[in-house]
């Protein structure tokens, strides 16, 4: 049997239990890790493995210093290999994933990733190419206002990655062109666009807890929120027909930071109940740091979780239907 | 388009210019690197990339020290990933190959391997599994007598890998079971089995230049040596019908170390001429060290080269035939 026939046979037969794949794309320090963490915890480490596409950096920090482009440029990453690995994972095959160490800025020995029920793939480039996008069951883009993202990036990179505030600010300037050219355009391919930001009509401030605007694009069937969102819950959340940046119609869900925990929780539990799952409501959602919570984050995570669990259930049904065929 | 359909489409359309793949399998210090080096030079670095499957070691030297098995055990290697990478390469897709540093015994950052015209894959495991074997156009196994292999291993590992002779000898003992269970059985899957050894009927010695016995199994069409090997060249080379270890019939080509360079060269040039290639006869064949030559090695390399160049020509013909189809 030729190798060509072989891979095809594996592709044909290896399908049924393929993982549910979620993309979380966004610029550096847009909140990807925080969003991913709660999802990963809710899904459980036996069922889910999260990974970051920064691991596909082609150069280490020292090498990048002398290059004419930043880590946000496609040439600075093994995007072809990233696509290949996403495809393999989506087909239920293991990969030997490269490893970029953010703390030291070094490329290290690769590690085995075996297919699980769920894979959360977060990073700068998961929605960059058609081949990559085709691997995902749900595509999310994080789109905070630049002023907030810059504040988050300075805080994170000085705390965790050994940079000074001045270095981070200089780096942000250096990255601006690549960000505009390669990262922000990925927003257009997402099923869900999330913006954590003060809602201006309510005179909220950037310094306080942030509300969320969640654009639910009609590219996937979202949970039916009409039964959940009533006049009672309006102070916590409401859905509004809106126009996207490009003028296309979209559902805009506003989740308010100042709503009472009780009201938000009631909405969250209704969404959870609509899934028809026996499990208890996952309490890990909404965590942003030690003891800190964000109800808007919890709602965003819940909606994403809804999609992932439903995709898994749909796959199981398909497998069962497939199994009784002659 | 689902990711499953996508990989299949790539497999269907990506075929024609797939690389010619050669496996050189054998135990540690059986002569794989020396054999590979001359082939790689003859093929040229633009057309060929050689790699060693030791790169698929799962553990570094320090980790291996506390494990109950040696590097010759399948569990000590990412063999599933090795299979996957060989399949991808055979289909003309790039891979991000892990890297094992033999000098330091460490696992390092992976490196990109892009498909070339030829790939020489040498190592302990290329013929271990059916999936792996199916990737190769030609499969070679190196089978020196244990006494010679042990001498080579002590010399190489003390010179290049920072071990003492005592450590190498202890290591050989430790590896014996795994070698017998997992490495030597791969001999059965080779198209060509090569044994560099004194030919006893001629009272040759292990200390002098080594002759070669080359088993040409009828699993692939070998060059027609009947026109080349005459009474005139008998002192350099002769072909003998023989029985393999398992009793199966096989062509045994004896290449004598003590033959005159002129006679051997005449045979080599005849094989080369039979390829109908315009290129000059490659002078790099037969090199074993600084200024040292082995004519038996040159003949073995030439026969392998014959197969690789012919496989490439056959592929080109297929592509051309394919191209004029309606």
Features:
homodimer, 326 residues, Rossmann fold, 8-stranded mixed beta sheet, two-stranded antiparallel sheet, 12 strands, 21% strand
Number of strands of chain A: 12
Strand percentage of chain A: 15-25%
What is the CATH architecture descriptor of the largest domain in chain A?
3-Layer(aba) Sandwich
Helix content of chain A: 25-40%
The largest β sheet of chain A comes out as:
8 strands, mixed
- As an assembly, this protein is homodimer
Q: Any idea how many domains of chain A?
A: 2
- Give the structural class of chain A: alpha/beta
- Residue-averaged pLDDT of chain A: 88
The separation of the N and C termini of chain A measures 26 Å
Within the CATH hierarchy, at the fold level, what is the topology of the largest domain in chain A?
Answer: Rossmann fold
- The strands making up the biggest β-sheet of chain A line up spatially as 2-5-1-6-7-8-10-9
Rg of chain A over CA atoms, rounded to whole Å, is: 20 Å
Unreliable spans of chain A: 1-16
Q: What sort of overall outline of chain A do the alpha carbons produce when their principal axes are compared?
A: globular
């Amino acid at each position: 049997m030729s190798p060509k026939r072989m891979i095809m046979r594996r592709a044909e037969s290896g399908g049924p239990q393929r993982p549910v794949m979620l993309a979380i794309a966004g610029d550096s320090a847009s909140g990807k890790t925080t969003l991913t963490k709660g999802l990963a915890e809710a899904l459980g480490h036996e069922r889910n493995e999260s990974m970051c596409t920064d691991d596909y950096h082609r150069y280490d920090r020292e090498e990048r210093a002398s290059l004419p482009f930043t880590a946000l440029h496609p040439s600075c990453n093994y995007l072809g290999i990233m696509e290949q690995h996403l495809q393999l994972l989506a087909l239920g095959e293991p990969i030997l994933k490269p490893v970029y160490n953010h703390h030291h800025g070094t490329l290290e020995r690769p590690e085995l990733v075996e297919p699980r029920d769920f894979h959360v793939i977060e990073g700068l480039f998961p929605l960059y190419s058609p081949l990559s996008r085709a691997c995902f069951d749900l595509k999310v883009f994080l789109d905070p206002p630049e002023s907030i993202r810059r504040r988050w990036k300075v805080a994170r990179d000085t705390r965790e990655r050994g940079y000074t505030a001045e270095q981070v600010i200089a780096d942000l300037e250096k990255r601006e062109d690549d960000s505009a050219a390669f990262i922000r355009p990925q927003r257009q391919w997402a099923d869900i666009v999330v913006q954590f930001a003060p809602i201006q009509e309510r005179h909220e401030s950037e310094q306080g807890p942030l509300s969320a605007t969640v654009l639910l694009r009609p590219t996937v069937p979202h949970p039916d929120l009409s039964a959940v969102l009533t006049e009672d819950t309006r102070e916590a959340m409401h859905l509004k027909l809106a126009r996207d940046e490009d003028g296309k119609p979209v559902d805009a869900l506003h989740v308010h930071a100042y709503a009472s925990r009780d009201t938000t929780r009631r909405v969250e539990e209704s969404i959870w109940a609509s899934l028809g799952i026996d499990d208890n409501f996952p309490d890990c959602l909404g965590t942003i740091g030690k003891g800190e919570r964000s109800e808007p984050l919890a709602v965003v995570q819940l909606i994403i979780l809804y999609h992932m669990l439903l995709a898994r259930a749909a796959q199981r049904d398909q497998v069962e239907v497939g199994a009784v065929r002659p």
